[in-house]
Please model this.
Amino acid sequence: MAQSLLKDKNILIGVTASIAIYKTCELVRLFVKAGATVRVVMSEDAKKFIAPLTFEALTSQKVLDSGSEDWSSDYNHIAIGKWADLFIIAPATANTINKLSNGIADNLITQIALAYLRIKLLAPSANTNMMANPMTQASLKMLKLCNYEVVKTQTKELACKDVGDGAMAEPQSIFDVAVSKILENEYWKNRKVVVSCGGTIEKIDDVRYISNFSSGKMGVALAIALYYRGADVCVIKTAGVKEIIPEGIHVIEVSDTKEMLEFVKESIHVAKKGVLTKNTIMDSSKQELVQKKPYFFSAAAISDFVPSYPQYGKVKKDDVGDIWNLQLAKNIDILSTIDKNGIYAIGFKAEMDITNAKNNAENMLKNKNLDGVCLNILQDSNSFGTQTNTIEMILKNNKFFFDGDKLDISFEIVDTLAKEFHD
Model:
C-alpha cells in the first residue's frame, strides 16, 4: 500500500464499548500507514475495554473524550467534525446505532455524528440477537438513507460464544470502504468498469496445462484504484491471481480463454445497463439509473496458442514414448472479438522486443479499434510479479509515461483517462 495514499487526509474514528475495539487498533494502523492523520474519540464505556493511551501511541494525537473536550481548540464535538474528511464509528454498538437513528446526542460520539454533514461510516458490532432485532434493523435502514454507509458485519463465533451475524468487519474491509469514500472522483463514481487479469490456463490433459508467468498484480492494482475512485468494478481473474481484492469489488474466477471471453462479454453487457443508485431520504420510492459509458481494461495475459486436442484424464508417458509432439492452434483474440460499441476499451501489451514494441502497440490500438493501449516492455521472466512497473499509455491523440509502484501507476492511469475522456 502506498504511504502517500491518504496524504493530507484527516480521519476521525469514534470508538464505542464493544470487545471488537481491539480491531480498531489495526484499523488505525492501516490509516496511519497510508499517510492519514488520525484522531480517536472514545465513549466513557469504551475506556473500560482499552485505555486512551493505546490510541494516542498509535496516532500520535490526543484522544478526545468527555474529560479532554476543549472549546479553545478544535478538540470539541463541533470543530473536530469540521477537521475530519471522514467520520467512522468502529465498533458501533447496537445502542449507538439505535441512538443515531433517532437523533439522540447524549455523548461525544453521537453529538459529533449529529453535527457532521458529510458521509459517515458505521462498522456495527453486537450480539446476533441484538443485531437482528427489528428495532436495530429498522435503525440501520434509516441510517442508510441519512448519509451513513454501513460496513456489513460477519457471521462467526462471537465473544459471547454465540455463533451468528454480528461480528465487526475486518479492519482491511473497513479501510477499503473508507478509502473509496475519501478518494472517490465524480468521473468514476457510479461508472461500471470490467477488468480482466491473470494468465489463462489452457488444458493439455486433466493434470497439465499451458499458461504464462503473469501474476495479475497490475490488473488487481488497477481494479483497486478504480474502486477507490468510486467505480463499480467487476474483476474477471484466473486462478493464478493471488492478490487480495477488496470485498466491494465483484470477482469472477475463470480458467481458460473461452471462459474469460464468455464472462467478459456478459459483464460488459451488464455494465452497459448502468448503475441503479440508492434511495434518498427525500423520496425513498425512487431510484435513479446512472448511465455512464463503461470501461473494459483487458489486462489479462491470454495464451496465444492452445492445445489442439486436449485430452481427458492423464496422458501417461509410457503411452506417448520418448517424444511428445504437442500440436497447438492459434487462440481466439478477446479484444478483437468483443463488441466495443458503447464502451471505452483499454488494452495491455507486454513486449520484450524493444525495437518494435511501440510500433506493435500502436498497431494494436488501430487494428483492434481500442481507445488506449498500456505498453509494458519486459526485460525477462523476472519482470513478472514485481511491485513496480513502467508503462507507456498510448491513446489516439496523446501518450503518457508512468513509472513506479503499481498502485500509484494505476491511480495515474485512471486519473489521466478521466481528464482525456471527460464525458
